[in-house]
Amino acid sequence: MNYIEYIRSLDYEDLEKFAGKIRNYIIEVVSKNGGHLASNLGVVELTLALYRVFDPYRDYIIWDTSHQTYTHKLLTGRWELFPTIRKFGGLSGYTNIFETKYDRFGAGHVGTAIAAALGIEKALKLNGENSNVLVVIGDGALTSGESLEALNQIKTLNSKIKIIINNNSMSISKNVGALSHFLEKMRTSKIYLDAKKTMKSRLSKGVEKELKKLRDALKVSLTGEDFFESLGLKHFGPLNGHNLKELEDEFKRIKDYEYPSVITVNTVKGKGFEISELDPEMYHSAAKFDISSGTFVKESGIISYSEAFGKTLAKVAEKDEKIVAITAAMKKGTGLFEFAKKFPERFFDLGITEQMCVTFAGGLATLGLKPIFAVYSTFLQRGFDQIIHDIALQKLPVIFAIDRAGVVGEDGPTHHGVFDIAYMRMIPNVKIYAPKNIQDLMGTLYTLLNKELSGPVAIRYPRDYEFGKFEELYDKIKMIDLDKWEILNFGKEVAIVATGYPTMGALNVAKKNNWTLVFARSIKPVDEEVIEWVFENHRVVFSVEEGVKAGGFGEELLNFGKVEILAIEDEFVTHGTRKQLLKLLKLDENGIEERIKEVFERRSIYEDANRIWRT
Ligand SMILES: Cc1ncc(C[n+]2csc(CCOP(=O)(O)OP(=O)(O)O)c2C)c(N)n1
Ligand SMILES: CC(=O)[C@@H](O)[C@H](O)COP(=O)(O)O
Ligand SMILES: [Mg+2]
């Protein structure tokens, strides 16, 4: 069925009913699979109106971040497959050019759409093609550096793109920063909206030009100088993002507009499902939930790495006023909730500005504060230059709490945190630690916060959890000799040197097979005494890490002897549960054992043959 033709055939009453049907379908599927519920519920009408006026099969509609593209997916040929979304082998939770070419540009990270759209528009022009190029971007994503860089070039590039701002005043948490205040004023200015309505109804067609002038002046007087117009874009709206007719009328009006334009659309994040409307932050990236109560389906008695990190930080910070925490719009995900509540003056949510967060932390560190930037591994990729140029070069004692290190699960390849060992390890002056479990993460953090640091430090930990209670774990917390590797099992022939999350699985394998297991909490520096002992006393040495092989921990060990590296090969990892992916990568217990036995057998056959040949 061609849903684009179908939605165009409906009158507004039926279209509204269809919007309801889409909402129910999204709620039903997300309740089973998890996903970006609130963001998607907010853009149902926006997507319908947009696709009645513009053509997703002909025009180029680029969705920023693309976590809000479920309606787009449903309308562009994926209705039946939708229940597979985010599941292993199923649809991606984001736009993906390998899924369909009507996902015009893949994303997952914030702020890429305007730049991509400008490139696409230029390419179309150079190819002699003529299609509309549009961007749909959230108010949160709009504030990221890359969006602002691209906005700044629109006029110079003679672009005609149309940018639709989905203005719901939310990033994941409340949106922050001056631009968000500007949008918020636009959104809530009842006077503006009312005045606009009155003017429209009172003035005749002939004075429309005057009306527009008046409207612009009014906009400026209420919100300050119009940010977008000062960049050379025409600014329309704000529109009611849940009024299909209002949206459609305005989209039609600007369809053939010859200038670059911005249309602000006010939406309610979580719209149409009371539970998510009331708490859009909780249902931004929702786990599976019970539809009637909204309760998340999760095991009881568990604690996540993020939670343990955040609670430990908040506790230690009670006694140390120098500790300050930074997030790039990820307060909830990184577990900084408690810290933010307890120490608002020492907590900084700088919006989606990973680069800035790194340098900001550097500034804090120069004057003796103890900054800790809690950030997902995949998003810290944005701050790579800043880590080198602003932090490491100057040996500034900034702690990078790298959450979601390793495979993250259902978010897939845009979000897996598999590159941080490689991108941090290559930088001089940086120390990197990878705890083996939650107790160890707490001890590592506690130690780092209680000692004098000589330069930047990273701790990496996964999107995972364990059974346990924070208070009990905190009672057992102790200072750790961080750079000392620990031999957790003494065995024969084979030695496994493991770092981070896979260590505990590897330990079971080692015990079962009477092999040596060394836990390398410190990826950098290497404990040279222990690694030399390992090579002197074992026939085959394996390294295990949850990260890419190229530039990873195993490669560091190659400087000391021959190592069989168990890590992620040179490929992007798909989406699925963390368990499924670790199995796929052979980094779970069975996989580690299987690979070691395979290599060990191969090596033994080779060595035996060699011996026979020599005698
Ligand atoms: C570079 C980067 N940093 C952080 C994130 C995490 N993140 C995903 S969506 C989002 C909020 C986006 O807000 P907005 O664009 O307003 O979309 P909404 O969900 O409100 O519709 C954030 C911070 C990301 N995807 N990419
Ligand atoms: C779209 C995005 O980048 C975030 O919403 C991300 O999906 C959150 O991931 P967690 O669920 O791991 O916090
Ligand atoms: Mg938003």
From TrEMBL:
<keyword id="KW-0460">Magnesium</keyword>
<keyword id="KW-0808">Transferase</keyword>
<feature type="binding site">
    <location>
        <position position="67"/>
    </location>
    <ligand>
        <name>thiamine diphosphate</name>
    </ligand>
</feature>
<dbReference type="InterPro" id="IPR009014">
    <property type="entry name" value="Transketo_C/PFOR_II"/>
</dbReference>
<feature type="binding site">
    <location>
        <position position="139"/>
    </location>
    <ligand>
        <name>Mg(2+)</name>
    </ligand>
</feature>
<keyword id="KW-0414">Isoprene biosynthesis</keyword>
<keyword id="KW-0784">Thiamine biosynthesis</keyword>
<feature type="binding site">
    <location>
        <position position="168"/>
    </location>
    <ligand>
        <name>thiamine diphosphate</name>
    </ligand>
</feature>
<dbReference type="Pfam" id="PF02780">
    <property type="entry name" value="Transketolase_C"/>
</dbReference>
<dbReference type="Pfam" id="PF13292">
    <property type="entry name" value="DXP_synthase_N"/>
</dbReference>
<feature type="domain" description="Transketolase-like pyrimidine-binding">
    <location>
        <begin position="303"/>
        <end position="469"/>
    </location>
</feature>
<dbReference type="InterPro" id="IPR005475">
    <property type="entry name" value="Transketolase-like_Pyr-bd"/>
</dbReference>
<dbReference type="InterPro" id="IPR049557">
    <property type="entry name" value="Transketolase_CS"/>
</dbReference>
<dbReference type="InterPro" id="IPR020826">
    <property type="entry name" value="Transketolase_BS"/>
</dbReference>
<dbReference type="InterPro" id="IPR033248">
    <property type="entry name" value="Transketolase_C"/>
</dbReference>
<comment type="subunit">
    <text>Homodimer.</text>
</comment>
<dbReference type="Pfam" id="PF02779">
    <property type="entry name" value="Transket_pyr"/>
</dbReference>
<protein>
    <recommendedName>
        <fullName>1-deoxy-D-xylulose-5-phosphate synthase</fullName>
        <ecNumber>2.2.1.7</ecNumber>
    </recommendedName>
</protein>
<feature type="binding site">
    <location>
        <position position="354"/>
    </location>
    <ligand>
        <name>thiamine diphosphate</name>
    </ligand>
</feature>
<feature type="binding site">
    <location>
        <position position="273"/>
    </location>
    <ligand>
        <name>thiamine diphosphate</name>
    </ligand>
</feature>
<comment type="similarity">
    <text>Belongs to the transketolase family. DXPS subfamily.</text>
</comment>
<comment type="function">
    <text>Catalyzes the acyloin condensation reaction between C atoms 2 and 3 of pyruvate and glyceraldehyde 3-phosphate to yield 1-deoxy-D-xylulose-5-phosphate (DXP).</text>
</comment>
<feature type="binding site">
    <location>
        <position position="168"/>
    </location>
    <ligand>
        <name>Mg(2+)</name>
    </ligand>
</feature>
<dbReference type="InterPro" id="IPR005477">
    <property type="entry name" value="Dxylulose-5-P_synthase"/>
</dbReference>
<comment type="pathway">
    <text>Metabolic intermediate biosynthesis; 1-deoxy-D-xylulose 5-phosphate biosynthesis; 1-deoxy-D-xylulose 5-phosphate from D-glyceraldehyde 3-phosphate and pyruvate: step 1/1.</text>
</comment>
<feature type="binding site">
    <location>
        <begin position="140"/>
        <end position="141"/>
    </location>
    <ligand>
        <name>thiamine diphosphate</name>
    </ligand>
</feature>
<keyword id="KW-0786">Thiamine pyrophosphate</keyword>
<dbReference type="InterPro" id="IPR029061">
    <property type="entry name" value="THDP-binding"/>
</dbReference>
<keyword id="KW-0479">Metal-binding</keyword>
